[in-house]
Specification:
Rossmann fold, four-stranded antiparallel sheet, globular
Length: about 230
């Protein structure tokens, strides 16, 4: 479904992502593993249009997205949960979600039932300001906000950062259930191997802006992947 070919991305004259090619099939979950500073966030921001690409092609369901602005990529079926969550702290939980539902016309006044079913804590805290939630609750809110755009591809950047282990396990379980029920694919950048193992069908390792290793779940050498993540 997602096809990326020979992507070159950088800041000014400094290249960070070097001719990366990858694919994500419909309904598949792919983990992009790597240490800090290896190019994970830069690559994901380029995919969603937050950074320009210097070279290469990005296609979603056969439609070329290279050079298109972020809002057009969202309409084409991408959704992005950024590192640090970036929820609106002064808006309530419900307002944070409803804002994301504005993309197809006038504001919808009701959060879909599947959101509250998946994240009951968000239903309980619907009138609380986003800035007053815990880190784990904010991450759930950021995921819910992305999901109400009905994506075919959900892209998450370091979703476990600053989250306690019990919440990380719940997050993987919820994403697996929603992926099956809502029929979307997942591309997630991550450093926590246990979370990736709970979620992903396939694993990519990025090192110094290049994909240096790829394995499916059935043949995964966890020790080898862990070695790439060790500073």
């Amino acid at each position: 479904m997602l096809q990326v070919k020979d992507l070159l991305v950088g800041y000014g004259e400094s290249n960070v992502v070097h001719q990366v090619s990858l694919k994500v099939a419909a309904g598949e979950a792919v983990a992009l593993m790597g240490r800090n500073g290896m190019g994970k966030t830069t690559l994901l921001k380029a995919l969603v249009g937050m950074l320009p690409t210097q070279r290469g092609d990005i296609e979603l369901d056969g439609v070329t997205l290279t050079g298109r602005p972020s809002h057009q990529r969202v309409r084409s079926g991408m959704a992005f949960v950024p590192q640090g969550r970036m929820i609106f702290p002064q808006l309530t939980v419900e307002e944070n979600i409803l804002v994301a539902m504005d993309r197809n016309g006038p504001r919808t006044q009701r959060v879909p039932d599947y959101v509250h079913d998946a994240f009951p804590v968000l239903a309980q805290m619907r009138d609380r300001k986003g800035g007053n939630l815990s880190g784990g609750q904010q991450q759930m809110l950021a995921i819910a906000r992305a999901l109400v755009t009905n994506p075919r591809l959900l892209i998450l950047d370091e979703p476990t950062e600053g989250i306690q282990p019990s919440i990380i396990k719940d997050m993987a379980r919820i994403l697996n259930v929603l992926r099956r029920e809502r029929q979307f694919a997942v591309l997630v950048s991550e450093q926590v191997l246990s979370f990736a193992l709970d979620l992903a069908d396939r694993f990519l390792v990025i090192d110094r802006g290049r994909i240096v290793h790829e394995e499916g779940r059935a043949h995964l050498d966890a020790a080898k992947v862990s070695a790439f993540l060790t500073v």
